[in-house]
Amino acid sequence: MGLSTHVLDTMHGTPAAGMQVRLYSMQGPQRTLVKELVLNADGRNPDGLLYEHSALRTGCYRLEFAVADYFRVRGVDLPEPPFLDQVGIDFGIADASAHYHVPLLVSPWSYSTYRGS
Questions:
Q1: Model-wide pTM > 0.85
Q2: Which domains are assigned to the chain?
């Protein structure tokens, strides 16, 4: 089980390879950086799960995706400031024995997420 993410670039119809991602644990307004990573060619964490099953705890978390930087590297001409810069997804883990998958579908102008499987 554990925690995972996957990012798809809906503008280009590809995985968001090279996008920078940060994972934080949250305690009210306080956040603690847990992990920084760059997505692989499949738009996923190259090390697999963000949290292994044994390390995942109930609580609140935040995934932060460097969307504008990713699209700039892809050669997209973005306005300044960009419409979407950092996309943050705050979510809760209620059952640490379950698998939580947090996918992101993103373009320079929109994004969508859901609890995946």
A1: yes
A2: 2-113 (2.60.40.180)
* pLDDT tens per residue across span 57-93: 999 999 999 999 999 999 999 999 999 999 999 999 9
The tokens for 102 are 């947090």
Q: What angle do CA 107, 89, 9 make, to 5 degrees?
A: 20
